[in-house]
Every structure is written in structure tokens, then in C-alpha cells.
Amino acid sequence: MLSHDNAISFLQQLFRYTIEEASPVNKMSNWLPQTNPCGRVIVVGAGKAAAAMAAEWERIWPQDYPPLSGVVVTRYGHTTPTKHIKVLEASHPLPDTAGQAAAQALLNAVSGLNPHDQVYYLVSGGASALTTLPVSSITLADKQYINRQLLSNGVPIDAMNTLRKHLSRIKGGRLAAAAAPAHITTLAISDVVGDDISTIGSGAGVPDPTTLADIKHIVNQYQIDLPASVITYLNKADAETPKNLPNSSAHIIINPDQVFTAVQNWAINQEVEVLYLGDRIGGEAREVAQVMAGIALFQQNRHQRSKPLLILSGGETTVTLNRQQGRGGRNTEFLLALAIALNGANNIYALAADTDGIDGSEDNAGAWLTPDTLLRAEQAGISAQDMLNNHNAYDFFSTTGQLLVTTPTLTNINDFRAILVL
Q1: Quick check: helix, strand or coil at residue 128?
Q2: What angle do CA 166, 172, 173 make, to 5 degrees?
Q3: Which end of the chain is more exposed for a tag (fewer CB within 10 A), N or C?
Q4: Considering only CA atoms, which of 80, 53, 90 is closest in space to residue 68?
């Protein structure tokens, strides 16, 4: 029976179950080729789950099929052992030279193929930053400068990727174009709202529906300062991405909704009611927290219920930084704003985390809160509102002893938010 003593343990167990359901292990066999390929089989990939996906693809690959070869890139520390597919590491969320070299390695791996060859592109969240290979007239420093603005200006992921795709030699379908005439099959773990395959990892293996006109709108809306070299390039016709790729097909092997459906069923089996708000929650993290607090308080004040209530949601919020840039990611910022809005309400507990195990760029997956969170902060001499104003949620929850620290999860379906009303 759930009580105040085990509420946080329940939420942590729920998060662990979410990660298990989002793992590529035992989730990829449906996409094995039904007949023995007659040419070479090249595996390339990118993302926080890329190494885990490559290891699983090797594990289930039939022994009488042609041997696998290729290369994938993942975030530093997110590697898992493989036998035939090389694993590289690079920086995320800000790209580095290792990611540039890795992207070139992916292009090299799919070059010079023939129509009998098969390419499998294993992609998950994080692939965009990990495969930064600018077009020849743009430098890595230019891309890093733009990326910092995208992250700090609260730009949604689909808008970020629209810009990234048009400045890359690999994204927006250009990996598939390089692989032609070989067929390329994208297998994706979705971390994007709506599961748009062309947005996941910036759609390197599929046609790109976004246009140069979309970029102009994004730059104006979010006040992105583009370097002169980028402006010059985007005024050229060949800056447009491929719109027709007959050698390309794509499948989403895991998406947030199917994971959260399994999580709901698990919670129901634990005698908990579930209010599922969907996997498409976006917007400013602190504003989402205000809405979630209102829902939780309303549910708390309803007539006596026979079971605890779990308010569950996924998606991807954003944080627009002011001049005071402290430590923390979008999930800890959400929780800090939620704590302030709940104001110590009895019987309400919450946990929010990024399913890749890293909230922003810190070492924590997220954090949790209890009815006494604000009291803990007050006793430690810190102001919750000041910490929120300074985007310093990491230090806030570090002080209250409520950071959620995990090892890399080797998957990514974006945000996990769970509010428990006892």
C-alpha cells in the first residue's frame, strides 16, 4: 500500500520501469530482413541509444546472413560493447570536433555502395549534436555559436532541427543521398513530440519536408543571430535539402506513447489510478509546472478517493535563459517551479527526469520533491524563488538532497514527469 514513507520509492521504481520499456533490447527483431541479403550490410547510427541499438542488432542478426560492419556515434559515457560495429563518442548537447569526425566516418561508411548493398541507420535522440558536419563554407565554430543560441533561446526541437538540417552535410536526408544507390533503412527510437521521423536526429536517412523559407521564419521568431557565412550559404539554391529519396525507408521501433502506455498499466496493477496527460507536453518548463500544480491541487481537493492518483506525462519542455544562468536542466526547473506552486501541499509527491539519464548538461537525470521540499530549502538558508529566477534548480535540489542520479540509460524518449497524489 502506498504511503508517505514509500511514495518516492514508488516514483523511482516507475522511472526505472520506464527506462526498461524504452530500451532497444528485445525491441528490434521485427525489422530484421526476411530474406538473406545478397550484398554488403552496413550499419551506421547516431544518438544516445546508438551503441545499445548497435549491440542489440548484432545480437539478433542471423549467423547465416552477411557479416555486419559500420560505425555509430553516441554521447561520451554512453558506450556499450560491440563486436563488429565500431562505436565512437562525441559531445552533447554542444557539438565538438569528435562529433565532426564521427559524422564524416558515417558518410565514409555509406560511400561507394551498389544497389545490392543494405544500410541500416540506427538513430535516437541526441543524434543532431553528435553528428555536426557543417557544409564546406561554414565552420564548426559557426555551428557551435548557433547551437548555443538555440539552446538558450527556448527554441523547440523541431525548429532547432530545421536549421541544423540545412547547414549539414549529413542531416536532412543527405546521409541517404550519399548511400544511394544502396537502400537505407532508418530504425528510430523517437524522442520528439508527434514522432515525426524527419525530425528524429534531424532526419539524416529520410526526405526533409522543411524548407529555407521555414528557416527565415524561425530566425525571425527566436531572434537567432546568424554568422555572415551562414547567411551567405542559405541564400544559395543548393542549400535546400533532398525532398525525394526513393532508396529510403523508415520505421519507429519505440515511441514515447507505447512506453507510457506500458507504464500506465504497470501503475494500475499497483492499485494506483492514472491520469495520463499524453506524451506531447511542451512549452516553458516553469509554465508547464503551473498547470500541473493546478491539476494536482484540484485532484487533491476532490472527494475522498479510494486509491492514490498518478498524474503522468511526457514530451519536451524548454527553458529560456535570462542573464542569470545557473545549473540545471528543464526537468529540475519544472520541479522547482512545481514545488513553489504547490507550496508544501500535503500528500503530493513528484519526480521528473530526462529518460537519457542526463537533465541538461549536469550529472543528474532529474530530481524529486516532497511536501517538505520548500521547508528543507528554507532551513538551509536558500530561497526557492531566487533559485528559480537564476535557473539554479540543480543546486536547489542538491541542497535539499533530492537529486536523481543514475548511470546513462542508453535510451531516450525525452521527459518523464510523474506527480503522485496520496
Answers
A1: helix
A2: 140
A3: N
A4: 53
